[in-house]
Amino acid sequence: MNPTKDFNARDNTEPGLNYASLYHAPVLCNTVIQGLVTRKDGIYVDGTLGGGGHSAALLDVLSALGSVIAIDQDDDAIQAATERLSTEVASGRLKILKGNFAEMDRLLKSAGVDKVDGILLDLGVSSHQLDEATRGFSHRMKGPLDMRMDKTQSSGAAEFVNEMDESDLMHLFFKYGEEPKSRRIARAIAQARPILSTEHLAEVVRWAAPRGTDSKTLSRVFQALRIAVNQELDVLDKVLLKSVNLLSVGGRIAVISYHSLEDRRAKRFLRSGNLEGEIKKDLYGNKITPWKEINRKPISADKEEQSANPRSRSARLRIAERVDNTTKLV
Ligand SMILES: C[S@@+](CC[C@H](N)C(=O)[O-])C[C@H]1O[C@@H](n2cnc3c(N)ncnc32)[C@H](O)[C@@H]1O
Fold first, then answer.
1. Burial class of residue 315, CB neighbours in 10 A (0-12, 13-18, 19+)
2. Both 244 and 121 in a single domain?
3. Ramachandran sector of residue 77 (left: φ over 0; alpha: ψ -120 to 50; beta: rest)
4. Which of 198, 229, 260 is the last residue of a domain?
5. Is residue 69 domain-resident?
6. 238 within 8 A of 223, measured Cβ to Cβ
7. What would the pLDDT profile of 62-99 be if each residue is shown by its tens digit?
8. Closest residue to atom 8 of ligand 1, CA basis
């Protein structure tokens, strides 16, 4: 791989589906690895291990001296990827750590690492989490109202749905699901409580949704609950802020997001170095930011990948390189 290659003129092929497993098919796999790796003997963090597809692809392009530290908060992912990548774990080229990527600095320290050459965040849930009815993530499956990625966490979706005030629920659906009928949905839920299963929640939402909008409303309501249960936006903010000090100069961060709330955050931060997206300039009018954007526009999956892996349709990839023109932000 040539790190100086014009990344935006990347190959059109996406052979990353070779890294798919029954657990999950990694999205934009080849593209993300091409954009992320600048040193083949570097240390890379996969903050969202899942089924290990991206980690496996990373390990394949790194030299024998390169290594990956992979993090996930879900025990199912830790188990599946540890089995799949057992040879790499045994050789020491791959370390798998259970935890939240919001704690990336602490997790890396526990592995004896202060600085890394690349960080990958493939946000959201895996296909396994969605397809496994007992995890309660999908409105298409009958399961408990759970949605915790980390099963040791105390509150799942049932606690949110049954214990929040109607007005707080309304705000939750509006803020995290951008749901236009959030008031109506929250009222229907409050009247139908207790709601303990995905099936029951889906039935109430379908009943309250304006005609012809069931499917979009269900997606928005389930997305909002999932974001709230797992504090997805807060942990993303935390890891973005920490990434500045964790990356060596010349190292890169790649963020794959699946909805506009995540993508907006990644875009603002990777442009400005702050969560507000405020571009600061010095006396000479130069931008003060720890980042050089590798792609200004987000990269999407091509048509072939989208038809082979429908989940890739909403994926947006942003990559930025750590540059040396800033003071410590965190
Ligand atoms: C989209 S999947 C990643 C799939 C992976 N790239 C692959 O190739 O299989 C997202 C994974 O990240 C994990 N995850 C999401 N948010 C996390 C967080 N804040 N901390 C740790 N893991 C997280 C989820 O449990 C899930 O396994």
1. buried
2. yes
3. alpha
4. 229
5. yes
6. no
7. 999 999 999 999 999 999 999 999 999 999 999 999 99
8. 53
